[in-house]
What we know:
By secondary structure, the chain is an alpha+beta fold. Helices cover 33% and strands 26% of the residues.
Amino acid sequence: MGIIANQKGVTLIEAMVALVLLSIGIVAVAAMQTRAIGSSGAAFERTGANGVALSVLETLKALPFDDANLVATPSLTSVGARTYTEAGLPELQTVLDVPAGAAAGTVVDNSGLTYQLSWAVQDTILATGENPYKTVRVFMTWASPFGQNRLVMTAVKYRNITL
């Protein structure tokens, strides 16, 4: 009889400790997976916003230099910026949709994500009075599970030269 009387149940306690440690590990992996899924969704939204902002920026750059969408705004900030309308930039109707009754500048992309879209323009006037280029800045904001997100893209539009 090599079993000492006070050692009974030691394997049961060891098994319970092992189960507790395993449970802690499983909870940690589940929390990590939840965070990874949320981060993946946020990356998807940012990628969508980048695509929309780039489409808008390229469309604005393709417009004639004196187009109404490229008239200077009070500043290059989102304050006083122009907001998107389907009538103002019909070239983007295949990429963006404006929900009925939505606030000005609200757009939905082809994947169903909703953004606030606006842009600002600043003329560059030389001492000679010449306006050789404009700075165009596109602003995108959207809400995500991690809070409010913002994206700003800037490009320079040079005066069209006719040959």
